[in-house]
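Running low. Invent one:
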Amino acid sequence: MIDFYLKLQEKLFSAEAKAKYIDCNVLPPKFIDFYKQQYLSQEGFEVMVMPSVLMEYDIVYNNLEKEPGTINLTFHLCYENARATGSLNKAVQAKSLAFLKFINVTYELLKDLESETVGKLKITSENQNKTDSIIYVHLLTFEGSFTGRNISDKDKYDYTEDDGDLESTSGLVKHYDFGD
C-alpha cells in the first residue's frame, strides 16, 4: 500500500498533472492524505489546504488468500465550497462550477494509476458526498487487484485428511491404499 500511496502523490504533484489542472483553469491538489474524516471535524485536524485529495481503502481477500485480494479505493476530492452554483448569476456560476473541472482532471489522472501491489483501477461509482461539511466533496470509487500480502506456498494447495486413494496417470503407481 505504501508504494501506491507514494505513486498517488507523485502523479498528482507532477509537473504534467499541474499543467493539466492549469489548462482547465483550476488549482491542482495542494494536499494528499489518507481519509480520517478531516472535513467533518476540522477542529481535531490541521486545517486542510484546498484543493485536497483524501484516500480511503478497503481490501477483501477471497479463497483464503490463495489469489490476489480486491481493493476498493475511494478518493475524496475536496474543493472550496461552491456556494453560487445556481443559474441566476452566470458569471459567478462559471467560477463556482470549477470543481467539476477539478473532478474531471483528477479522474483522468487516477484512472491509469497502478503500482506493484495495486493493479489497474476500474471506476465503480462516483457521487457527491451528502454529509454536512463546509467544503464540497466528490467521491470517486475504483476497484483493482491487491497483491500486497505475501501468500506462502503451502497456502496455495488444498489438502485432505482421513483415508483416501491416490491415483496417478503416469503408469508408475496405479493405486495406493492409505489404510492401516
Q: What stands out?
A: Residues 65 and 151 are 6 Å apart (CA to CA).
